[in-house]
Structure of F-box domain-containing protein:
Amino acid sequence: MSIDFYLSFLLTVLIPPTTIALISCSSKVFQSILNRKILKHLSLHNILSNRQCGFR
């Protein structure tokens, strides 16, 4: 039997793609801190509508 016969039965295993970080870890920490502070300010001063649910 030739090698081509064995290779014809090989299956391709797809590995799910991993996320690619476009910003550094320190930037992610800064972003989450800034997000919390902005959200707290908006909630404290009743700037966000009660109908707004995607940003909260």
In short: Residues 3-45 form one domain. The first helix runs from residue 3 to 7.
